[in-house]
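#onboarding

Welcome to the new folks! Below is a worked example of what a typical request in this channel looks like: someone posts a single protein sequence, and someone else replies with the predicted structure as tokens. Don't worry about understanding the tokens yet, we'll cover that in week two.

Example request:
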Amino acid sequence: MNQIDTAAIVRGLDPADWVQIKLLRSLPPEKRIIPAMRAQAFAMSTFKLALKSRYPELSDSELNMKVLRHLTTVRMPEE
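Example response:
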């Protein structure tokens, strides 16, 4: 992400976002990671639900692989 992208993100933050950032910064690192992990799990489950509606014929394991394929930086070959 370049500096212009970062500045655009910062300008787009609401006051509530700044409160959340301040609260998270006050937490020790071992407690700060918990909300991040919850947010990641929420994003992954939301994405999986979207895939499920798009590909109803796929099994849970096939959907999980599609989620991982989309969200990981390591590119996995299509089967």
